[in-house]
Recover the amino acids of this structure.
């Protein structure tokens, strides 16, 4: 027996395809959209279509943008000789919030993950190598997550960059501010010791 009209079920099914959205949440979202006034529902639909139509990857750094070249790459006040490599566009946003980095970025759009069938050919490594090969880059900072896939991706890329005579660094990882040492795992404490700085 079908409990919902087909159109409503189709809408819920589309929401359920979004990451982190389960069946019940998808149904709640579908009911919410159905209860929107017509003009708001149209605005919601137009926002999806407009984003799909106008947002694309920057040809330089692979970040998402609605311009020909993204604002970071086109900002000449930034240090264009230092590239920070991140896995996803949201990682770039996190780095920018710190207001500590004044170089440029390269977004991989994923990490190497054999278990998820993601290989080096599925992410934007080739574009990074092309940028570095032009010869204007002095340092590449690997800022992938400190998990198995992030570490494997960073090591793979660093091996590819080694013959290009560019400095390759990795973010220092350590004990988060506000936490307590007794709750830190061995790997975190080891990284904190390795990344220690003079005060």
């Amino acid at each position: 027996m079908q409990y919902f009209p087909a159109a409503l079920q189709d809408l819920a099914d589309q929401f359920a395809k979004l990451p982190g959205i389960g069946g019940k949440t998808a149904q709640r979202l579908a009911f919410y959209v159905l209860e929107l006034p017509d003009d708001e529902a149209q605005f919601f639909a137009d926002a999806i279509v407009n984003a799909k139509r106008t947002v694309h990857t920057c040809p330089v750094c692979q970040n998402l943008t609605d311009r020909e070249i993204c604002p970071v790459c086109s900002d000449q006040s930034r240090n264009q000789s230092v590239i920070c490599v991140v896995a996803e566009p949201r990682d770039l946003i996190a780095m920018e919030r710190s207001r500590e980095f004044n170089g440029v970025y390269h977004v991989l759009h994923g990490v190497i993950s054999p278990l998820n069938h993601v290989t080096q050919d599925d992410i934007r490594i080739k574009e990074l190598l092309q940028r570095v090969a032009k010869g204007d880059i002095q340092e590449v900072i690997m800022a992938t997550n400190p998990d198995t896939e992030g570490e494997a991706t960073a090591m793979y890329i660093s091996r590819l960059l080694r013959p290009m005579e560019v400095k390759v660094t990795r973010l220092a990882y350590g004990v988060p501010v506000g936490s307590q040492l007794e709750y830190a795992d061995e790997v975190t404490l080891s990284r904190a010791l390795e990344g220690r700085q003079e005060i």
